[in-house]
Amino acid sequence: MHTIIIGIAGGTGSGKTTLTASLRDHFGAGEVSVINHDSYYKRHDDLTYEERCKLNYDHPNSFDTELLVGHLKALRAGQAVQVPVYDYTVHNRSSETVTVRPAPVIILEGILIFAEPALCDEMDMKVFVDTDADVRILRRILRDVKQRGRTLDSVVEQYLTTVKPMHEQFVEPSKRKADLIVPEGGHNQVALDMLIRWVAAHLQNAQA
Prior knowledge:
Layout: E1 4-10, H1 16-27, E2 32-36, H2 49-53, H3 65-76, E3 81-87, E4 92-100, E5 105-109, H4 117-120, E6 125-130, H5 133-147, H6 152-174, E7 180-183, H7 189-207
Parallel strand pairs: 1-5, 1-6, 2-5, 6-7
Antiparallel strand pairs: 3-4
């Protein structure tokens, strides 16, 4: 099986997940496997919850890049991998893993994936989702409060102290590495159709 790896990056709340889900739903889980960069936050069992709350989770060094690169290479070689499960409510990895199986298309989704040269080297196509900052912060607040058990004050404080500065330092500059820049994420039907045609051509060639 010939596998391609598509990286989908962009700021927090930009619409990466919507675009990823649209591609996966179009082709089906048998053709597309998805890996989220957030799953590879480093484990910090040595720290208390209060100490983990103070860590900067928006810096490239907060991720276990070596493990992720190894998993991408394994998937390309046709091997299933055990992806860590990150628990946002306690700011640490859980004891569980999720099996991700090889597929013709692997999508790697994450804010900082283009900031790591070792990850970029594994990608056949790099897509950056570009969305207005006001829209992104509102989406992040709704997500973190409703889905991740955070308080409004903690989300705003984290955004101002680490998310926004790290976006300006790492995420926004990484846009220059993209092969395709998609305004408004999964709601951009023209860009989505382009990606679908590109992936469909790969799948057709792989089966020929």
